[in-house]
Specification:
The structure holds 2 protein chains of 2 kinds. Chain A is an all-alpha fold. Chain A has helices at 3-33, 39-51, 54-65, 70-79, 87-97, 99-111, 115-123, 128-157, 160-166, 176-185, 189-220. Chain B starts with 11 loop residues before the first strand and ends with a strand. Classes of the chains: A mainly alpha, B alpha+beta. The A-B interface holds A 114, 116-117, 119-127, 130, 134-135, 138-139, 220-224, 226 and B 52, 55-57, 82-86, 88-90, 92-94, 96-100, 109-110, 112-113, 139-145, 148, 155-156, 158-159.
Chain lengths: 226, 376
């Protein structure tokens, strides 16, 4: 068992989830409420990581964050080290790749709040923030949490993008899925097996949790059927 | 007089709105404090859009909305108050209670303008007023439709609104509950001093509860009047149709008889006495209406004729048995061979052996005949 890789994966997954929390809430709510030209295009752009091969995403991120890119050059100038092949670059890549996992369930959850409930909140005199805190989030939180859980699970298992953007630097970018690959390459099937089993159990547990959340969310809106 | 040039009372709602799109609107409304104005019209006539505009949930293109001396919207001055800044009590069609909050906190949600320490006690008072004391800790999902409606009304009143807006408030409850809630709303209405606007497609509901009724069609307010007055004297055939009058005919003004205080109307071969309208020019073609309750069916064994009636002969064309009521159409012998619709008690229809094809005698009550000047 490569504990260092596991710890790095958990750290990456937690940091990604924390960064995606506000993104999923505000983007999800905005996308749920807004009608604008180009919305379909924006939704498609957010969903792209779901269908593109991870190596392709990794390639574009590598180019976009590399030393010759404005972002990579700027980061290097500021912090004295490159953005790619270190944890910061990996985190940025991870957040971008997980946008659809985090935003889509949140958006669907906000969309499920009936328009007249939002209207009622406004007519009660609630401001944007109060309405978000007192009405929208209490009704949409299972969707937001589902998105974050999926992002967490997906980050733990991400392979292609991590390898392209981060390489496999122990303690810096070598996550557990890359460690498993390395173990198989060096024919250490026992080590690979134990880490794979651990990832399998974590993923299974998280998906059960997501399904339970989905059922709970269904009950939250059920009062209309009375 | 256009509504914005009328003097405003302190608790009065004045509305004048126009827009072409996305939903056409050309509305003028006035509702004084303590009065209930019913907006009636068929589905898609723009009732809910108009109500949402009053609430500040949609912004119309042009016009003015003022309430209680405060301007909420004035397109010319570029002034618009969003819903959360208007003191509006809004009861949406499906009540829109906050499903995650209990009854008490649904009501408390409408009290953000009050000091926090006073909210719970005030919410208890309101719940008592709408007969919901004891249900404070229930979630909306644990309430019946009628109870949900009362919570929605309590939450709307919790805002201490300058206007109360009710969007089809009885459409989501069963018939028996609805009948009970009519009584409760009528009682509650007597205790309220703000203007109230209720959207409904149910004429009977409007007749029961409203002080004023406004007929809306394709976004236009066609006529506003007291409900009985509006049904008795529609300003156009469009309004007549929208308030459910089926007896709409062409005729010609024959002349006036000032001594008898009546205007004579030629209808086919018949000469009808109608209420005195000296402004109508003899010889002019007009349209006229009579509600079906202004038509009297004559029993075969007891024909009658009084000065307050116009007797006509016809042939029964249609018989619809609708429970205790039988709806008849009698074919008249005017040039259009018009049908005259009336309702008779079913037992009377049976006793008189009313059937399609039999000759019938009916009387049109003079006072119920209304001649429409505007033949729109």
């Amino acid at each position: 068992m490569d504990w260092q890789a596991l710890r790095l994966s958990l750290l990456l997954a937690i940091a990604t989830t924390v960064l995606l929390l506000p993104v999923s809430i505000f983007t999800g709510r905005w996308m749920a409420e807004s009608r604008f030209r180009g919305k379909i295009l924006l939704e498609a752009a957010i969903a792209t990581p779901l269908v593109l091969p991870p190596t392709v995403i990794g390639y574009y991120l590598l180019v976009g964050m590399g030393a010759h890119s404005p972002l990579g050059a700027g980061f290097s100038e500021l912090f004295g080290r490159p953005l790619v092949f270190n944890f910061s670059g990996l985190l940025i890549a991870s957040v971008l790749v997980n946008l659809p996992f985090a935003i889509q369930p949140a958006q669907r959850a906000f969309e499920a709040i009936p328009q007249d409930v939002r209207d009622a909140a406004q007519c009660c005199g609630m401001s944007f923030w109060r309405s978000l805190w007192a009405v929208d989030l209490p009704l949409a939180w299972p969707g937001v949490l589902t998105g974050l859980t999926l992002s967490f699970a997906h980050t733990l298992g991400e392979f292609g993008v991590v390898l392209m953007v981060g390489g496999a630097i122990p303690g810096e970018t070598k996550t557990v899925s890359i460690a498993i690959y390395d173990q198989v390459q060096s024919l250490n099937f026992e080590g690979a097996g134990s880490m794979s089993l651990l990832l399998l159990l974590i993923s299974l547990g998280l998906l059960v949790f997501v399904n339970l959340l989905g059922r709970y969310a269904g009950r939250l809106h059920a009062y209309r059927n009375v | 007089m256009p509504v914005d040039s009328m003097p405003t009372a302190m608790s009065e709602l004045l509305v004048r709105l126009q827009q072409e799109s996305p939903i056409p609107m050309d509305a003028e409304l006035r509702c004084t404090g303590g009065q209930l104005l019913a907006l009636v019209g068929p589905s898609g006539s723009g009732k809910t859009t108009l109500l949402r505009a009053l609430a500040g949930l949609v912004q119309p293109k042009h016009g003015v909305i003022s309430c209680g001396g405060e301007t909420w919207f004035d397109s010319a001055a570029g002034h618009y108050l969003p819903a959360r800044k208007r003191r509006v009590g809004y009861v949406p069609q499906h009540f829109a209670l906050f499903p995650h909050l209990d009854v008490l906190h649904n009501v408390v949600s409408g009290m953000l303008h009050r000091a926090p320490e006073t909210r719970v006690a005030a919410a208890h008072d309101l719940l008592e007023r709408v007969n919901l004391a004891g249900l404070e800790s229930r979630k909306p999902g644990q309430l019946s439709g009628g109870q949900q409606q009362r919570v929605a009304v309590a939450r709307a009143l919790a805002r201490e609104p300058q206007v109360l807006l009710l969007d089809e408030p009885f459409s989501a409850v069963d018939h028996a509950t609805r009948e009970r809630l009519y009584g409760e709303l009528a009682m509650l209405k007597q205790t309220l001093s703000m203007p109230m606007v209720m959207v409904t497609h149910d004429l009977r509901e409007a007749m029961l509860l409203a002080d004023e009724m406004c007929v809306l069609h394709r976004g236009r307010t066609l006529q506003t009047d007291k409900p009985l007055e509006l049904v008795a004297r529609p300003v156009s055939t469009d309004v007549a149709r929208l308030v459910g009058i089926r007896n709409i005919y062409h005729g010609e003004i024959a002349g006036h008889v000032p001594d008898l205080e009546c205007t004579q109307l030629r209808f086919g071969a018949a000469m009808l006495k109608t209420p005195y309208r000296p402004e109508l020019i003899p010889g002019s073609r007009v349209q006229w209406v009579i509600p079906s309750d202004g038509v009297v069916f004559h029993r075969r064994d007891r024909p009658s004729h009084t000065e307050r009636e116009n007797q006509l002969q016809g042939i029964v064309d249609t018989v619809h048995k609708l429970g205790e009521i039988t709806r008849l159409a009698v074919r008249m012998d005017d040039e259009d061979r018009s049908l005259l619709w009336l309702d008779v008690p079913s037992h009377l229809a049976r006793r008189n052996e009313i059937a399609v094809g039999v000759a019938a005698t009916v009387s049109l009550t003079v006072a119920a005949i209304h001649i429409i000047k505007d033949n729109s």
